[in-house]
Structures are given as C-alpha cells and as structure tokens.
Amino acid sequence: MPTQVEQGTVTLTHPKGSRVEILLYGATVISWIAPSPSGSLQERLFVSSKALLDGSKPVRGGIPVVFPCFGAPTHPEHLKLAQHGFARNTIWKFAGVVMDNEAGVSVKLTLDPIDHESISSVYPKKFALSYVVTLAEHQLSTDLHVENTSPSDSLEFQALLHNYISSPADEVSISPLQGLSFYDKTEPTEEGKAKAKVESRDKVDVKKFTDSVYENAPGRYNIVWPQGSIEIKAKGFKDVVVWNPQEEGAKIGDMETQGWKKYVCVEPGYVRGFVKLEPQQKWTGQQVLTIQSLTHL
Ligand SMILES: O=P(O)(O)OC[C@H]1O[C@@H](O)[C@H](O)[C@@H](O)[C@@H]1O
C-alpha cells in the first residue's frame, strides 16, 4: 500500500524505498527518506528530538506551512494572528490520493476555515487551502494551492514552505544568491532590518546566525555540502529565506541541544509584500526538493 492514513499521519511509500510522512496537524511533512545516488536510504529533513508531535505546538522541523503571514503579522487583516500564521498549527483533512503510478505517489490535504472556529474568530476571510505532496524516487514536491472563495472581497496573504534540510550547517553552501537584494533579520534595529543589502557571496554559508530574506530570487537553489546536495526549485514563490540560528538556537525551547548544527532552512516563499487574489481567483506556490549527485554539480 503506497498510501497509509493512520492516527493523524499520512505515509507515502515508493517502490524504490523512498518514504514521506505528513502529519495532518499543520500538514507538516515530518520525514522524507530518499536514496543517495549510491543507493543508501537517508532521512533528508531535520526534526528536533524535542519537537512536540502531539498537535500542541508547531513542529520544530520537517516542513511547516507558513500562511497567511510570515513572521510577526504586518498586514492590518493579520494582526490577531500568531507568528507564521495558523496553517502550521491547524488540523488539515486528508482529501485523497491524487496520483499513484510508477513515477510516484501523490496525496492532497485540505484546510477550510469553515471547519475551524479558531481561525474564523481571528481571521474572518473566505478562502480554501489545499496542499499536494508528491513523492518520487529522488524527489519530494509540495504544492500549496490558495483559493479566494469570497464572491466579493480580495484576499491578501503571504506563504512559505519552511523546510529544515538535514545537512551539516557548518559545511553547507547555498547558491546562486549573488547579486540579490536581501533583508537581514539578524540586524539589531528595526531600521537595520528594513534596509536592503546586496548579497556579494557566490556561495552563501550559515556559519554565523543567519536570517536573510532574499527577494525576487531565481527559484532554483543548490544546497551543497561535502557528502551531499539537494536542489530546491520553486514556482510562485518569488522570495527565499535562509535561516539558521547557530548558538541563538539555544533560546528556542523545542530545539534539541546543538540541533542547529544539523540543518539549514532554505525556504521558498512569497513574503515581501502580499499575494493579492481577487474574488474566486487561485494561486499556487510549489517547491520541488531533489537529491542530486555531487558529480552533476
Ligand atoms: O520559531 P519559528 O516561529 O518556527 O520561526 C523560526 C524562524 O523562521 C524563519 O523563517 C524566520 O525567518 C525566522 O525569523 C524565525 O526565527
């Protein structure tokens, strides 16, 4: 059975051994196992050993879904929402298998605010979310679909797929980001955070505390370390956030000891400004994570 739904978790398996686990809570992908080019199966996502998986708080790791605000809310319609919005801590519905063939297996999860008083009480907008997760032998795709179901109001939102890519943080490099303008959230003052910088590095590392929001990014990123490489392709997400807290991570309650050494986040998003959907319009943001052979680089 390539798809199993049990106890709030959806598990997809591929004949070649790849596997993905998705919690209905937050539609959070909490595990992606995929073979390296040499064939050995490896976990590709970091989840903190202190992460709570019981639905009491967003998962520290995997791929939380950020919607409708990124970071602390700034849009007037989002002011009652928590950091990164409600999609990552709401229970989604399993809506069925979308595809199941030799190439891969794909499922859909949905979130309708009508089912959640916790959302409609703070965000009385009409919209529908669906999330399609597709597993192939060396690849994981996650597509977020947003529909404005209102007959009369527009919908403005931000969205981001907050992957935690398992990798040695002190050895990774991320490219190509050179020449892009970015906002450095590690700057101590609001003025510093709001001032655009230009990325001068050919290969970006996260050896120090990094929280950078690159805008109008190319939509294709390579994360490379001595033993491996993952490519991220993004569509609909014009920005990308590179985050690793380094020692600042010790302040995060559900971060395991030195957990920040085990991952890098390279998060495709639409987070500078807002996607604006007119009544009945739809939008899709997609990320495709692919295990790469180092010899292809
Ligand atoms: O602790 P949270 O809410 O999961 O957020 C983690 C990080 O998420 C990143 O996307 C943000 O750029 C960071 O500023 C933030 O610290």
Automatic annotation (TrEMBL):
Q: Which Gene3D superfamilies match?
A: 2.70.98.10
Q: Write one Pfam family the protein is assigned to.
A: Aldose_epim
Q: What class of enzyme is it?
A: isomerase
Which CDD domains does this chain map to?
Answer: D-hex-6-P-epi_like
GO-annotated cellular components: cytoplasm
The molecular function terms of the Gene Ontology recorded here are: carbohydrate binding; glucose-6-phosphate 1-epimerase activity
- Catalytic residues of the enzyme: H162, E267
Q: Recorded E.C. number(s)? A: 5.1.3.15
Q: Which InterPro entries match?
A: Aldose_1/G6P_1-epimerase, G6P_1-epimerase, Gal_mutarotase_sf_dom, GH-type_carb-bd
Catalysed reaction(s)? alpha-D-glucose 6-phosphate = beta-D-glucose 6-phosphate
Q: Where does substrate bind?
A: R60, Q83, R88
Q: Write the record's keywords in alphabetical order, separated by commas.
A: Isomerase
Q: Which GO terms describe its biological process?
A: carbohydrate metabolic process
Keyword Isomerase (UniProt)? yes
Key word Signal present in the record? Answer: no
> Which family does the entry's similarity section mention?
Belongs to the glucose-6-phosphate 1-epimerase family.
Which function does this protein serve? Answer: Catalyzes the interconversion between the alpha and beta anomers from at least three hexose 6-phosphate sugars (Glc6P, Gal6P, and Man6P).
What protein does this entry describe?
A: Glucose-6-phosphate 1-epimerase
